[in-house]
Amino acid sequence: MLPIFSGAALAFLGLAPQTLLDQVFSLLPTSLSGEQGGQRCALNNWRLTGHPGWEWEKEVAVVTGGCSGIGKEVVLGLVANGVRVAILDVQPLPKDLEAIDAVHYWACDISSPAAVKAAADEIRSTLGNPSILINNAGMAFKDTILDASPDRIQKIVSVNLVALWWTTREFLPAMITANKGHIFTVASMASYVAMPMSAHYAATKSGALSFHEALRSEIKHMYKAPGVLTTAVHPMWVKTDMTAPHAEDIERHHGPMMMASDIANPIVKQVLDRRGGHLLIPGSGGLASGFRGFPSWLQEAILDRIGKNTAAFKGS
Questions:
Q1: Where does the secretion signal sit in this chain (predicted)?
Q2: For the chain, give me the number of helices (H) and strands (E)?
């Protein structure tokens, strides 16, 4: 009976309307998201409660890409709770953020280790050692593997992935010394499932997940600093300046996009809860984290569905 069932399921995945598929997937177990019960405890360095020792008016957060999109919403959420924020961004500081005393800005290309070091030195001398690092800055392009230019490939890898080393190397040592800190890696659902025309983006986001996992293990076992927390963030489609050029196509083929605040609010809550872990947003998207463990036929059927929808996008 299994081959008949599998064949019927495969036909259903291939022929059913997208709206019906979305309803079915939303009913599947979400325990794969890593946010249930004991798994949540494990990702919080085996603590059931938040870690002690945090005083928000005394904390300093560094937010990369904090001038727009998710990063800007995170900045607003943190300062609303008393945290001072240092923004690293190549975009100019918006007027509304400029008016907030707790917001500080450094023009910085995070793909340059020298630029990150210079900004970090100024942050430390001006504000003290940051206890929160939110690696949020990122970029995306829509290219096939054959069409992507060397410059675009190098830029997206440098900003989305390699820059994680430069910022973390600057701010992690003081966190280890204090045995207190929280490092966020804003990845994507593309960490788990790659789509056509986004091989470079998906590669950086799966790499970001690997970076996060190795970082968590090194902090715990090599540096013996269980008070330094790590959180990986995996959002689905989000309406930002970065996705704006393709928003119409995305919503036509993949459904409504989330707003930046839908991602930023859980990040800020995770900071305030003093817990490490994984944030898969929306929660129903947690199914994607177990994608590689699905039967091959199911993986291929899902990828075929995604591929057909993505292939309908207009070229940039």
A1: 1-21
A2: 12, 9
Provide CB contacts within 8 A for 226, sequence distance 6+.
45, 179, 219, 220
CA distance 226 to 245: 42
| Residue-level pLDDT, tens digit, the chain, 316 residues | 344 434 444 444 455 555 545 544 454 444 444 445 566 666 676 566 678 889 999 999 999 999 999 999 999 999 999 999 999 999 999 999 999 999 999 999 999 999 999 999 999 999 999 999 999 999 988 889 999 999 999 999 999 999 999 999 999 999 999 999 999 999 988 777 777 888 999 999 999 999 999 999 999 999 999 999 999 999 886 766 666 566 556 555 556 668 999 999 999 999 999 999 999 887 666 666 666 666 778 767 766 676 676 666 544 4
What is the CB-side half-sphere exposure of residue 309 using CA atoms within 13 A?
19
Amino acid identity of residue 11, one-letter, is A
Q: Do the beta carbons of residue 116 and residue 166 sit within 8 Å?
A: yes
Residue 239 tokens, joined: 């309406």
Integer Rg of the chain from CA? 20
Residue at 211: amino acid letter: F
Strands annotated E in the chain: 60-64, 84-89, 103-107, 132-135, 181-186, 228-235, 238-239, 258-259, 277-281
Q: Which two tokens stand for residue 272?
A: 């305030």
Look-up: residue for tokens 């400029």? Answer: 98
Which DSSP category does 34 fall into?
S
Closest Cα partner for 54 from 239, 272, 259, 311? 272
| Residue 136, phi then psi, degrees to nearest 5 | -110, -30
**What are the residue numbers of the active site?**
201, 205
What CA–CA distance (Å, rounded) separates 187 from 164? 11
User: Contact 32/286 with Cβ under 8 angstroms?
Assistant: yes
For residue 97, which of 82, 79, 110, 109 has the smallest C-alpha distance?
79
